[in-house]
From TrEMBL:
Keywords: Kinase, Transferase. Coiled coil: none annotated. This is Kinase. GO terms for biological process: secondary metabolic process. One of its GO terms (molecular function) is kinase activity. It comes from the Bacteria. Pfam families: APH_6_hur (PF04655). The keyword Zinc-finger does not apply.
């Protein structure tokens, strides 16, 4: 059997209590998948994410690829469905999937180089160029257009449990209560008047767009949390990119509002809808960071939300 590979520290530290057994069995699961798919490991991608482990591998034919093992709360089948739907247009390609094992075999990108390596203005331009390609109808054949059945939750369904946890969480009982109340009210209002239902990346940010050697595009998106809803929801996560740099900048509030306006104008979206989703997503993320014992991150997110 292929030698076992240890999960990166970031995934282990972020592991949920209910996933302790999965984390303990992850090295064995990785090794078994490598053997079954005849893959030769090169190294574990680090620092990695909080919901998956990625191993850079060689296939039996010598081709390079990346084996991603998804955590139980990040279904591999749903990610594969989104990648198949995009069929390489703006996103990494899926080569193989085993939903039961949470395993995805992906084309290899240059994981050490994301849009965060570019100057901010250039990075935002490239990010918008990539994300616009991902906004397609959720159903239909790979790479095509049209409606039809699909396996993706709507933004309303995806955010319902998160909104409930935010409403009942520690932030709602603390000094952040006014921001929590505003975030929840904005979510309700935005969902009551949703203008479109497109397939969205769901977690789109500069760090989720990697350099590619593929001839079809220099930058490709990875790691989707695919949902169906309006474009403003997808763009909202991008508004707070490089948050630590923003927090340290003089005039951070004005910079943030200008960035929001530029992003909305770049894809002809109402700035108020983008502001609403950006605020909700920041406050909701702050609630999760606080519950996970990351108070500094939570405070930065709340400060960002206050600028909006």
């Amino acid at each position: 059997m292929t030698r076992e590979l240890a999960p990166p520290a970031r995934l282990t530290e972020a592991g949920r209590a209910e996933a302790a057994d999965w984390l303990a069995g992850l090295p064995g699961l990785v090794a078994a998948t490598l053997d079954r798919w005849e893959l030769t490991p090169e190294r574990v991608a680090a620092p990695g994410g909080r919901a998956s482990m990625t191993v850079l591998v060689r296939r039996a034919d010598g081709g390079r690829a990346a084996l991603k093992i998804c955590a139980p709360w990040h279904p591999a089948a749903r990610e594969e469905a989104a990648l198949r739907r995009w069929d390489g247009l703006g996103a990494v390609r899926a080569l193989r999937c085993d939903p039961a094992a949470g395993a995805l075999l992906l084309e290899r990108l240059r994981g050490e180089t994301s849009l965060r390596s570019l100057p901010e203005a250039k990075a935002l331009l490239e990010a918008v160029s990539v994300v616009r390609r991902l906004w397609v109808e959720p159903g239909g054949p790979p790479g095509g257009t049209g409606g039809g059945e699909h396996p993706f939750p709507t933004v309303e369904e995806w955010t319902a449990e998160r909104a409930a946890r935010l409403r009942d969480g520690e932030l709602a009982a603390a000094e952040a209560e006014p921001l929590v109340a505003e975030a929840l009210a904005l979510r309700d209002a935005l969902l009551a008047d949703e203008p479109e239902r497109l397939l969205l990346h769901g977690d789109f940010r500069q760090g989720a767009v990697l350099a590619s050697d593929a001839e079809r595009a220099p930058w490709l998106a990875v790691g989707p949390e695919p949902v169906v809803g309006e474009r403003s929801y997808d763009l909202a996560r991008l508004v707070r990119d490089r948050l630590h740099d923003l927090v340290a900048s003089p005039g951070a509030a004005a910079i943030t509002r200008r960035r929001l306006t530029r992003l909305a104008d770049s894809v002809e979206l109402p700035a108020e809808r983008l502001r609403g989703w950006a605020l909700f997503r920041a406050v909701e993320s702050a609630g999760r960071a606080w519950s996970a014992g990351r108070p500094a991150e939570a405070e930065a997110l709340l400060e960002f939300a206050a600028w909006l």
